[in-house]
Amino acid sequence: MTAADERAQEVATTAEPTSRRVFTFNDYMMFGAIVIFGIVGPFLFPNYTFQIAVLWLMVLFAQTWDVMGGQMGYNSLGNIFFFGAGMYICTVTQIGLFTDVGNYTSSSDGGSFQFTPDQYYIGVAVGLVFAAIGSSLLAVALGWIVFGLRGPYFAIGTLGIALGAGELVGAWEWVGGGGGIPIPVYPGSGDGKSFFYYTLCFGAAMATFLFLKWLYSTRFGLAINAIRDDEEKAEAMGIHTMRHKTAAWAISAFFLGISGGLFGNMTGFIEPLEVAFPAPTFGLFMVAMALLGGKGTIWGPVVGAILFHIVKEATWTYFLGWQWVALGVIIIVNIVYFQQGIVGWLQEKYPHWFGIEVEARNAGAKRAAE
Amino acid sequence: MNNLIEVRNVSKAFGGVVANDDISIDVPEGQITGLIGPNGSGKTTLFNSIVGYHPIDSGSIKFKGKEISKIRVQQIARLGMLRTFQQTRIYANMNCVDNMLISVPHRNAKFFDMFKPYPHELHEQAEHLLEFVGLYEKRKLPSGDLSFGQQKLLEFAMALMNKPEILLLDEPTAGINPTLINGLIDRLKRANTEFGITLFVIEHNMRVIMNMADTIYCLAHGELLASGEPEKIQNDQRVIDAYLGAH
After folding, report:
1. Could A237 and B85 be called an inter-chain contact, meaning their C-beta atoms sit closer than 8 Å?
2. What is the mean pLDDT of chain A?
3. N or C, which end of chain B is more exposed by having fewer CB within 10 Å?
4. pLDDT computed for residue A134 by the predictor
5. ipTM score here?
């Protein structure tokens, strides 16, 4: 062991750890409000259970996009790939555990195969686990290829992955090709199904939030911020940049894979272009939502997703025909006049709300005066 | 005395421009070694070659006896050799303390160390080093808001946080207010004597480098022109000619 190793060791072995950027009072208030709405929402608005469940998936989308786009400075336009991959992995697992996938997918009614309730629930549970892990592994493999790209090249490269995946799956007969796959039917009432998937969607979004909140308080958070600010400097300082980038993408993919598995089961029928790999809708919404709320902040993607989804649903209902125009206007105003987003702006204006200490430039003088 | 860095017959060309031609340099452990030369003489190219920023065309570069000319920037940094940049580079959207914390050594980092929190000791160490360079009062400011000179000091403190064995400094006093230069020289010397860090310094300010260095190498037009103790270099007619443009 060299002298430098010893010194490094000395730093590594330390007594009690401290958490950085822990939950502040305002965090508890916000999180509490969201949890309360999440629990009472479907009882207050029973007709909108499906829409509120999708809202939680949107929150999950924006948060997972922000891991890369906001915190690490890698603007991926292809994260929807992991949503679709998770959806297909989950579905194929649900079917494949109990019957032949090729037979099932080759007939429009699922070959009349009936899943027992036990088979259904086991399929969903195992399918979601496989979807999460499988999507993460795909992220590791793809990261190895595309992390050599920077800036706009990375954005376009990842978009290519999402678009290419849709086409490839469309040509893959074993998983139903362009014709898609009918999902195993929920063994119960329609309300029961809504409630079941609502709970899972809400749980997934909250788990994502809590996991990321913790993640950003560890060394990992600072390291990906450093990569965002100056990757070349981070390399020159010896940070394992590739390791961090790969892990960040795998974490995004993990939660996106779960969301894909859930959404496939909620819609009841999956096919590659519109449902599994919808790059022009969900794929771009996740970017727009994170930017609207404020990228690189913990609350920004959450707030952005909620606002975006409400506006989207309202325009779809009341201004049908103008809905895309309305979304376009929001995105343009956001990008041109309001780049830091809602929470980004609040954080600049009122840093103490977020538990960020910014000592005034004349702090030294003040201290001397005391 | 041990040589930490041994550069032997290194050449590097960019297209038709020969930036380094057959350069051989020794950087002895524990000392301060200077590298001078007129603009465009290949000093920064040599630094970049040593830290693995680009491959060299021929020759050999050894760090503590280990050949490093084929390995990459991050691996070399983790061996304990760090460089600062001529155009100062810091993490502009992070505050000074965070800049310091992320600069801890990554030498023995295991995979799951990524997810560990920062212990108290590191916070204290970060603040202590910020105090050392005179930035303690600014520690909570986003580092992008600091002046250029303060950013240079922060970059220096970040390098110290990494506990390197050797630090390659590319023009540490460029852009720094002349009244602060003496303070910086003093801190560089203390980094060398108190923290035991070997320094290899590119510098244009002759007063600074003559005052600090134990040995000086002078490059001109990509070739090694002269080397030796500061007095010898100062009185070398070839060095004077190179700076005055007699070539």
Report:
1. no
2. 88
3. N
4. 97
5. 0.89
Backbone angles phi, psi at B168, to 5 degrees: -100, 115
Give the closest of A8, A226, A238 to B74, CB-based. Answer: A238
Find the closest chain A residue to B141 by CA distance: A358
Contact A14 B122 (CB under 8 A): yes
Cα–Cα distances (Å) from A197 to A49, A255, A259, B25, in that order, read 9, 15, 11, 68
Burial status of residue A332 (CB atoms within 10 A of its CB: 0-12, 13-18, 19 or more): exposed
**Pick among A237, A243, A361 to test the B interface (most B CBs inside 10 A):** A237
Q: CA-to-CA distance for B104 and B112, rounded, in angstroms?
A: 16
Query: Could you give the CA distance from residue B149 to residue A231 in angstroms, rounded to a whole number?
Result: 22
Tokens of A184: 């195993």
Query: Within chain B, which residues score under 70 in pLDDT?
Result: 1, 245-247
pLDDT of residue B245: 66
In the sheet where B17-28 sits, what is the strand order? B17-28, B3-14, B58-63, B66-67
Residues of B in contact with A215 (CB under 8 A): 115
Per-residue pLDDT at A16 exceeds 70 = no
% of chain A at pLDDT higher than 70: 89
CA atoms within 13 A on the CB side of B231: 0
Closest residue in A to B100 (Cα) is A222
Strands (E), B1-106: 3-14, 17-28, 32-36, 58-63, 66-67, 81-83
Quick: pLDDT tens for A297-356. 999 999 999 999 999 988 888 888 888 888 889 889 988 888 899 999 898 888 888 877
B154 close to A (CB below 8 A): no
Report the 10 Å Cβ neighbour count for B165: 20
Q: Where are the domains of chain A?
A: 3-369
What is the Cα–Cα distance from B213 to B203, expressed in whole angstroms?
Answer: 10
Q: What is the pLDDT of residue A362?
A: 46
Nearest C-alpha in A relative to B48: A236
Tell me: pLDDT of A91 over 60: yes
**Whole-angstrom Cα distance, residue A108 to residue A181?**
8
